[in-house]
Amino acid sequence: MYRSWLEVSLSQIAGNFRAIRKLAGSGVTVMPVVKADAYRHGAVEVSRVLEEAGARWLAVSNVHEGIALRESGITSRILVMADFLPTSRPLFLDYDLTPAIHSLEGIAAYDQLAAAAGKPAPFHLKIDTGMGRLGTRASASEILEALARTRAARLEGLMSHFASAPNYTTAQTDEQIATFTAVLLHLRNAGVNPTMVHLSSTVPLAYGRKEAWGNLVRPGHAIYGYISPAKGATSPCLLEVHPALSWKATVLEVKDIPAGAAIGYGGIHTTGRETRIAVLGVGYADGYPHRLSNKGKVLLQGRAVPVLGAVSMDLTTVDATGLDVKPGDAATLLGTDGDESIDAQQIAKLAGTISYSVLCGISSRVVRLYV
Ligand SMILES: *Cc1c(COP(=O)(O)O)cnc(C)c1O
After folding, report:
1. For ligand 1, what atom is nearest to the CA of residue 222?
2. Which of 47, 113, 273, 284 has the least C-beta neighbours within 10 A?
Protein backbone atom coordinates (compact mmCIF):
# COMPACT_ATOMS: atom_id res chain seq x y z
CA MET A 1 0.00 0.00 0.00
CA TYR A 2 1.45 3.35 -1.08
CA ARG A 3 0.39 6.95 -0.59
CA SER A 4 0.67 7.52 -4.31
CA TRP A 5 1.68 5.27 -7.16
CA LEU A 6 1.74 4.79 -10.92
CA GLU A 7 0.44 1.81 -12.82
CA VAL A 8 2.16 1.44 -16.18
CA SER A 9 0.98 -0.99 -18.83
CA LEU A 10 3.98 -2.23 -20.78
CA SER A 11 1.70 -4.12 -23.16
CA GLN A 12 0.02 -0.80 -24.02
CA ILE A 13 3.45 0.72 -24.72
CA ALA A 14 4.24 -2.21 -27.02
CA GLY A 15 0.83 -1.81 -28.66
CA ASN A 16 1.43 1.90 -29.25
CA PHE A 17 4.83 1.11 -30.77
CA ARG A 18 3.26 -1.44 -33.12
CA ALA A 19 0.57 1.06 -34.19
CA ILE A 20 3.29 3.61 -34.95
CA ARG A 21 5.34 1.08 -36.92
CA LYS A 22 2.30 0.16 -38.96
CA LEU A 23 1.62 3.79 -39.82
CA ALA A 24 5.28 4.55 -40.58
CA GLY A 25 5.49 1.61 -42.96
CA SER A 26 8.39 -0.67 -43.80
CA GLY A 27 10.71 2.00 -45.24
CA VAL A 28 10.71 4.15 -42.12
CA THR A 29 12.54 3.19 -38.92
CA VAL A 30 10.77 4.05 -35.67
CA MET A 31 13.11 5.38 -32.97
CA PRO A 32 11.11 5.66 -29.73
CA VAL A 33 12.16 8.55 -27.49
CA VAL A 34 12.76 7.37 -23.91
CA LYS A 35 14.33 10.54 -22.50
CA ALA A 36 13.32 11.85 -19.07
CA ASP A 37 12.89 8.32 -17.73
CA ALA A 38 10.56 7.55 -20.64
CA TYR A 39 8.32 10.49 -19.77
CA ARG A 40 8.26 8.94 -16.26
CA HIS A 41 7.11 5.51 -17.46
CA GLY A 42 10.54 4.04 -16.58
CA ALA A 43 13.27 4.17 -19.22
CA VAL A 44 14.76 0.74 -18.54
CA GLU A 45 11.47 -1.17 -18.42
CA VAL A 46 10.06 0.71 -21.42
CA SER A 47 13.26 0.23 -23.45
CA ARG A 48 13.27 -3.49 -22.71
CA VAL A 49 9.72 -3.92 -23.91
CA LEU A 50 10.37 -1.81 -27.00
CA GLU A 51 13.45 -3.86 -27.83
CA GLU A 52 11.40 -7.03 -27.48
CA ALA A 53 8.80 -5.50 -29.79
CA GLY A 54 11.52 -4.90 -32.38
CA ALA A 55 12.91 -1.39 -31.79
CA ARG A 56 16.46 -1.13 -33.10
CA TRP A 57 16.99 2.50 -32.13
CA LEU A 58 16.11 4.50 -29.02
CA ALA A 59 16.62 8.19 -28.29
CA VAL A 60 17.52 9.89 -25.01
CA SER A 61 18.51 13.43 -24.09
CA ASN A 62 21.78 13.05 -22.27
CA VAL A 63 24.68 10.70 -22.09
CA HIS A 64 23.85 9.55 -18.55
CA GLU A 65 20.42 8.39 -19.67
CA GLY A 66 22.19 6.41 -22.40
CA ILE A 67 24.69 4.88 -19.97
CA ALA A 68 21.87 3.80 -17.63
CA LEU A 69 20.28 1.90 -20.53
CA ARG A 70 23.56 0.27 -21.53
CA GLU A 71 24.19 -0.75 -17.92
CA SER A 72 20.84 -2.48 -17.80
CA GLY A 73 21.60 -4.50 -20.90
CA ILE A 74 19.96 -2.49 -23.67
CA THR A 75 21.83 -3.24 -26.91
CA SER A 76 19.84 -1.15 -29.45
CA ARG A 77 21.48 1.84 -31.04
CA ILE A 78 20.97 4.88 -28.81
CA LEU A 79 20.89 8.43 -30.14
CA VAL A 80 21.72 11.08 -27.53
CA MET A 81 19.92 14.16 -28.78
CA ALA A 82 20.88 17.03 -26.52
CA ASP A 83 24.20 16.51 -24.78
CA PHE A 84 27.52 17.09 -26.46
CA LEU A 85 29.34 18.68 -23.57
CA PRO A 86 33.12 18.25 -23.63
CA THR A 87 32.89 15.99 -20.56
CA SER A 88 30.27 13.77 -22.23
CA ARG A 89 32.17 13.22 -25.47
CA PRO A 90 34.50 10.36 -24.44
CA LEU A 91 31.50 8.52 -22.96
CA PHE A 92 29.90 8.16 -26.39
CA LEU A 93 32.79 5.99 -27.49
CA ASP A 94 33.02 4.10 -24.19
CA TYR A 95 29.33 3.18 -24.17
CA ASP A 96 28.61 2.90 -27.86
CA LEU A 97 26.19 5.82 -27.86
CA THR A 98 25.54 7.96 -30.92
CA PRO A 99 25.66 11.72 -30.52
CA ALA A 100 23.51 14.29 -32.23
CA ILE A 101 26.22 16.87 -32.91
CA HIS A 102 24.99 20.39 -33.33
CA SER A 103 28.02 22.41 -34.39
CA LEU A 104 30.91 22.16 -36.82
CA GLU A 105 33.38 22.48 -33.94
CA GLY A 106 31.62 19.51 -32.38
CA ILE A 107 32.32 17.42 -35.49
CA ALA A 108 36.03 18.27 -35.34
CA ALA A 109 36.27 17.55 -31.61
CA TYR A 110 34.49 14.21 -31.97
CA ASP A 111 36.66 13.26 -34.91
CA GLN A 112 39.80 13.88 -32.90
CA LEU A 113 38.56 11.75 -30.01
CA ALA A 114 37.45 8.95 -32.32
CA ALA A 115 40.76 8.95 -34.21
CA ALA A 116 42.72 8.79 -30.94
CA ALA A 117 40.52 5.96 -29.65
CA GLY A 118 40.56 4.09 -32.96
CA LYS A 119 36.85 3.41 -32.64
CA PRO A 120 34.02 3.71 -35.15
CA ALA A 121 32.21 6.95 -34.46
CA PRO A 122 28.99 7.42 -36.37
CA PHE A 123 27.14 10.63 -35.52
CA HIS A 124 24.00 12.46 -36.54
CA LEU A 125 24.26 16.12 -37.43
CA LYS A 126 21.45 18.30 -36.22
CA ILE A 127 20.71 21.35 -38.28
CA ASP A 128 18.74 24.34 -37.09
CA THR A 129 16.18 24.86 -39.84
CA GLY A 130 14.24 27.46 -37.88
CA MET A 131 13.61 26.04 -34.43
CA GLY A 132 16.21 28.39 -33.01
CA ARG A 133 17.48 25.94 -30.43
CA LEU A 134 20.16 23.26 -30.88
CA GLY A 135 21.49 22.63 -34.38
CA THR A 136 24.07 24.19 -36.66
CA ARG A 137 23.07 27.10 -38.84
CA ALA A 138 26.15 26.63 -41.02
CA SER A 139 25.66 26.50 -44.78
CA ALA A 140 25.80 23.23 -46.72
CA SER A 141 29.24 24.17 -48.11
CA GLU A 142 30.58 24.84 -44.63
CA ILE A 143 29.19 21.50 -43.47
CA LEU A 144 30.87 19.78 -46.43
CA GLU A 145 34.19 21.40 -45.55
CA ALA A 146 33.90 20.25 -41.93
CA LEU A 147 33.05 16.72 -43.06
CA ALA A 148 35.95 16.65 -45.50
CA ARG A 149 38.35 17.24 -42.61
CA THR A 150 37.14 14.19 -40.63
CA ARG A 151 39.20 11.00 -40.49
CA ALA A 152 37.32 8.80 -38.00
CA ALA A 153 33.92 10.29 -37.24
CA ARG A 154 31.29 9.43 -39.82
CA LEU A 155 28.09 11.30 -40.69
CA GLU A 156 25.37 8.68 -40.36
CA GLY A 157 22.29 10.84 -40.03
CA LEU A 158 21.03 14.31 -40.81
CA MET A 159 18.29 15.56 -38.54
CA SER A 160 16.27 18.58 -37.54
CA HIS A 161 13.37 19.37 -35.24
CA PHE A 162 10.17 21.38 -35.79
CA ALA A 163 9.11 24.34 -33.71
CA SER A 164 5.40 24.44 -34.58
CA ALA A 165 4.44 21.02 -35.90
CA PRO A 166 0.87 21.00 -34.50
CA ASN A 167 0.13 24.47 -35.85
CA TYR A 168 -1.22 24.21 -39.39
CA THR A 169 -2.01 27.91 -39.51
CA THR A 170 1.65 28.89 -39.94
CA ALA A 171 4.09 28.10 -42.74
CA GLN A 172 6.95 27.52 -40.29
CA THR A 173 6.99 23.72 -40.68
CA ASP A 174 6.97 23.92 -44.49
CA GLU A 175 9.77 26.46 -44.37
CA GLN A 176 11.79 24.20 -42.08
CA ILE A 177 11.25 21.25 -44.43
CA ALA A 178 12.39 23.38 -47.41
CA THR A 179 15.53 24.51 -45.59
CA PHE A 180 16.32 20.95 -44.57
CA THR A 181 15.76 19.57 -48.07
CA ALA A 182 18.02 22.21 -49.62
CA VAL A 183 20.90 21.28 -47.30
CA LEU A 184 20.33 17.56 -47.83
CA LEU A 185 20.31 17.94 -51.64
CA HIS A 186 23.46 20.02 -51.54
CA LEU A 187 25.22 17.31 -49.48
CA ARG A 188 23.97 14.56 -51.79
CA ASN A 189 25.09 16.40 -54.89
CA ALA A 190 28.54 16.54 -53.35
CA GLY A 191 28.43 12.77 -52.80
CA VAL A 192 27.71 12.90 -49.07
CA ASN A 193 24.79 10.63 -48.34
CA PRO A 194 23.65 10.30 -44.73
CA THR A 195 21.93 6.93 -44.41
CA MET A 196 19.35 8.30 -41.99
CA VAL A 197 17.29 11.40 -42.47
CA HIS A 198 14.85 12.49 -39.78
CA LEU A 199 12.79 15.44 -38.59
CA SER A 200 9.56 14.08 -37.16
CA SER A 201 8.40 13.64 -33.59
CA THR A 202 4.85 12.50 -32.77
CA VAL A 203 2.80 15.24 -34.40
CA PRO A 204 4.13 15.23 -37.99
CA LEU A 205 3.99 11.45 -37.85
CA ALA A 206 0.44 11.20 -36.51
CA TYR A 207 -1.03 13.82 -38.85
CA GLY A 208 0.67 12.27 -41.85
CA ARG A 209 3.09 15.00 -42.88
CA LYS A 210 4.97 12.39 -44.89
CA GLU A 211 7.36 14.80 -46.57
CA ALA A 212 8.87 15.27 -43.10
CA TRP A 213 9.29 11.61 -42.20
CA GLY A 214 12.52 10.95 -44.07
CA ASN A 215 13.43 7.33 -43.33
CA LEU A 216 13.26 7.56 -39.55
CA VAL A 217 10.78 9.05 -37.08
CA ARG A 218 11.32 9.94 -33.41
CA PRO A 219 8.03 9.60 -31.52
CA GLY A 220 7.95 10.13 -27.77
CA HIS A 221 4.48 11.27 -26.74
CA ALA A 222 2.70 8.74 -28.99
CA ILE A 223 4.67 5.85 -27.48
CA TYR A 224 3.03 6.79 -24.17
CA GLY A 225 -0.40 7.12 -25.78
CA TYR A 226 -0.68 10.83 -26.43
CA ILE A 227 -1.00 12.99 -29.55
CA SER A 228 -1.35 16.74 -29.10
CA PRO A 229 -4.34 18.32 -30.81
CA ALA A 230 -3.46 20.22 -33.97
CA LYS A 231 -4.50 23.72 -34.88
CA GLY A 232 -5.93 24.82 -38.23
CA ALA A 233 -6.75 22.78 -41.32
CA THR A 234 -4.91 19.56 -40.62
CA SER A 235 -5.17 16.28 -42.35
CA PRO A 236 -6.93 13.80 -40.05
CA CYS A 237 -4.95 12.07 -37.32
CA LEU A 238 -3.88 8.70 -38.74
CA LEU A 239 -2.65 7.14 -35.53
CA GLU A 240 -4.59 5.57 -32.67
CA VAL A 241 -2.68 5.11 -29.42
CA HIS A 242 -3.78 4.90 -25.79
CA PRO A 243 -2.28 6.14 -22.53
CA ALA A 244 -0.22 3.54 -20.71
CA LEU A 245 0.02 5.21 -17.32
CA SER A 246 -2.47 5.69 -14.48
CA TRP A 247 -1.73 7.65 -11.32
CA LYS A 248 -3.41 6.87 -8.03
CA ALA A 249 -3.36 8.21 -4.49
CA THR A 250 -4.63 6.74 -1.25
CA VAL A 251 -7.33 8.39 0.85
CA LEU A 252 -5.64 9.09 4.19
CA GLU A 253 -8.59 10.62 6.01
CA VAL A 254 -12.31 11.24 5.49
CA LYS A 255 -14.32 13.70 7.51
CA ASP A 256 -17.50 15.73 7.50
CA ILE A 257 -17.05 19.42 8.06
CA PRO A 258 -19.70 22.12 8.40
CA ALA A 259 -20.73 24.80 5.93
CA GLY A 260 -18.59 27.93 6.09
CA ALA A 261 -15.32 26.13 6.95
CA ALA A 262 -12.04 27.03 5.27
CA ILE A 263 -10.03 24.29 3.58
CA GLY A 264 -6.22 24.18 3.46
CA TYR A 265 -3.46 26.77 3.04
CA GLY A 266 -4.65 30.31 2.64
CA GLY A 267 -8.26 29.24 3.19
CA ILE A 268 -8.85 29.66 -0.52
CA HIS A 269 -11.93 27.44 -0.45
CA THR A 270 -14.81 27.87 1.96
CA THR A 271 -17.43 25.14 2.10
CA GLY A 272 -20.83 26.30 0.90
CA ARG A 273 -22.61 23.38 2.58
CA GLU A 274 -21.82 20.57 4.95
CA THR A 275 -19.03 18.80 3.10
CA ARG A 276 -17.37 15.43 3.33
CA ILE A 277 -13.72 15.84 2.48
CA ALA A 278 -11.23 13.14 1.55
CA VAL A 279 -7.57 13.94 2.11
CA LEU A 280 -5.31 12.26 -0.45
CA GLY A 281 -1.67 11.28 0.03
CA VAL A 282 -0.36 13.25 -2.91
CA GLY A 283 0.79 16.83 -3.39
CA TYR A 284 2.98 19.03 -5.49
CA ALA A 285 6.12 17.29 -4.17
CA ASP A 286 4.80 14.25 -6.02
CA GLY A 287 4.31 16.34 -9.14
CA TYR A 288 0.57 16.96 -8.74
CA PRO A 289 0.50 20.53 -10.04
CA HIS A 290 -0.04 23.26 -7.46
CA ARG A 291 -1.97 25.03 -10.20
CA LEU A 292 -4.75 22.46 -9.70
CA SER A 293 -5.63 24.17 -6.41
CA ASN A 294 -9.42 24.69 -6.44
CA LYS A 295 -9.41 23.53 -10.09
CA GLY A 296 -8.42 19.90 -10.44
CA LYS A 297 -10.64 16.87 -10.55
CA VAL A 298 -9.91 13.34 -9.37
CA LEU A 299 -11.94 10.16 -9.70
CA LEU A 300 -13.38 8.61 -6.55
CA GLN A 301 -15.69 5.60 -6.76
CA GLY A 302 -16.20 6.20 -10.45
CA ARG A 303 -17.13 9.87 -10.04
CA ALA A 304 -15.18 12.99 -10.93
CA VAL A 305 -14.90 15.15 -7.81
CA PRO A 306 -13.25 18.55 -7.42
CA VAL A 307 -10.06 19.47 -5.59
CA LEU A 308 -10.98 21.76 -2.68
CA GLY A 309 -8.52 24.46 -1.65
CA ALA A 310 -4.78 24.54 -2.24
CA VAL A 311 -2.78 21.50 -3.34
CA SER A 312 -0.13 21.24 -0.63
CA MET A 313 3.30 19.65 -0.73
CA ASP A 314 2.19 16.20 0.37
CA LEU A 315 -1.60 16.36 0.57
CA THR A 316 -4.59 17.25 -1.56
CA THR A 317 -8.18 17.62 -0.34
CA VAL A 318 -11.12 16.63 -2.52
CA ASP A 319 -14.90 16.78 -2.20
CA ALA A 320 -16.28 13.37 -1.24
CA THR A 321 -19.78 14.54 -0.30
CA GLY A 322 -22.32 11.77 -0.87
CA LEU A 323 -19.68 9.09 -1.30
CA ASP A 324 -19.04 6.20 1.00
CA VAL A 325 -15.25 6.48 0.99
CA LYS A 326 -12.92 5.21 3.67
CA PRO A 327 -9.27 5.74 4.50
CA GLY A 328 -7.27 3.32 2.38
CA ASP A 329 -9.49 3.71 -0.70
CA ALA A 330 -7.78 4.72 -3.93
CA ALA A 331 -8.44 7.91 -5.86
CA THR A 332 -7.46 8.13 -9.53
CA LEU A 333 -5.61 11.32 -10.46
CA LEU A 334 -4.91 10.21 -14.02
CA GLY A 335 -6.55 7.21 -15.64
CA THR A 336 -9.95 5.52 -15.67
CA ASP A 337 -12.38 4.60 -12.92
CA GLY A 338 -15.71 3.17 -14.04
CA ASP A 339 -17.11 5.35 -16.82
CA GLU A 340 -14.97 8.36 -15.97
CA SER A 341 -11.45 9.08 -17.08
CA ILE A 342 -8.90 11.88 -16.83
CA ASP A 343 -5.80 12.05 -18.99
CA ALA A 344 -2.66 14.17 -18.88
CA GLN A 345 -4.06 16.55 -21.51
CA GLN A 346 -7.11 17.34 -19.36
CA ILE A 347 -4.95 17.85 -16.28
CA ALA A 348 -2.64 20.09 -18.29
CA LYS A 349 -5.51 22.22 -19.50
CA LEU A 350 -6.79 22.77 -15.96
CA ALA A 351 -3.28 23.51 -14.70
CA GLY A 352 -2.38 25.85 -17.58
CA THR A 353 0.48 23.68 -18.81
CA ILE A 354 1.13 20.92 -21.36
CA SER A 355 0.63 17.17 -21.05
CA TYR A 356 4.38 16.54 -21.47
CA SER A 357 5.06 18.60 -18.37
CA VAL A 358 2.37 16.77 -16.37
CA LEU A 359 3.87 13.37 -17.21
CA CYS A 360 7.53 14.35 -16.77
CA GLY A 361 6.64 16.26 -13.62
CA ILE A 362 5.50 13.17 -11.69
CA SER A 363 8.26 12.91 -9.11
CA SER A 364 10.40 9.89 -8.37
CA ARG A 365 8.75 9.69 -4.93
CA VAL A 366 5.70 8.20 -6.66
CA VAL A 367 6.21 4.45 -6.76
CA ARG A 368 5.93 2.88 -10.20
CA LEU A 369 4.24 -0.49 -10.64
CA TYR A 370 4.00 -2.47 -13.88
CA VAL A 371 0.68 -4.09 -14.65
C1 LIG B 1 11.51 15.03 -27.30
C2 LIG B 1 11.91 14.98 -28.70
C3 LIG B 1 11.21 14.17 -29.60
C4 LIG B 1 9.94 13.44 -29.23
O5 LIG B 1 8.87 14.36 -29.24
P6 LIG B 1 7.35 13.93 -29.01
O7 LIG B 1 6.56 15.15 -29.28
O8 LIG B 1 7.26 13.49 -27.58
O9 LIG B 1 7.06 12.82 -29.95
C10 LIG B 1 11.72 14.05 -30.89
N11 LIG B 1 12.83 14.73 -31.27
C12 LIG B 1 13.49 15.55 -30.43
C13 LIG B 1 14.70 16.27 -30.92
C14 LIG B 1 13.06 15.72 -29.13
O15 LIG B 1 13.71 16.54 -28.30
Report:
1. 9
2. 273
pLDDT digits (tens, 9 = 90+) for 132-172: 999 999 999 999 999 999 999 999 999 999 999 999 999 99
List all residues whose CB is within 6 A of at least one atom of ligand 1: 33, 35, 81, 161, 201-202, 218-222
Residue to probe by mutation, ligand 1, list 80, 81, 159, 209, most atoms within 8 Å of CB: 81
265 is catalytic: yes
Q: Supply angle C-alpha 302, 303, 309, rounded to 5.
A: 135
Query: Is 168 an active-site residue?
Result: no
Tell me which residue has its CA closest to atom 6 in ligand 1. 220
C-beta of residue 8 within 8 angstroms of C-beta of residue 368: yes
Distance CA 207, CA 199 (A): 14
Residue 254 and residue 325 in contact, taking contact as beta carbons nearer than 8 Å: yes
CB atoms within 10 A of CB 354: 15
Tens digits of residue pLDDT in 21-66: 999 999 999 999 999 999 999 999 999 999 999 999 999 999 999 9
- Residue type present at position 172: Q
| CA quadruple 170, 176, 182, 184: dihedral, nearest 10 | -150
Taking a C-beta distance cutoff of 8 angstroms, is the pair 70, 78 a contact? Answer: yes
Please, are residues 141 and 183 in contact by the beta-carbon 8 Å criterion?
A: no
User: Which of 231, 265, 326, 349 is labelled catalytic?
Assistant: 265
Q: Residues 63, 37: contact at Cβ < 8 Å?
A: no
d(C-alpha 18, C-alpha 97), whole Å = 25
Are 176 and 160 contacting, i.e. CB atoms less than 8 angstroms apart? yes
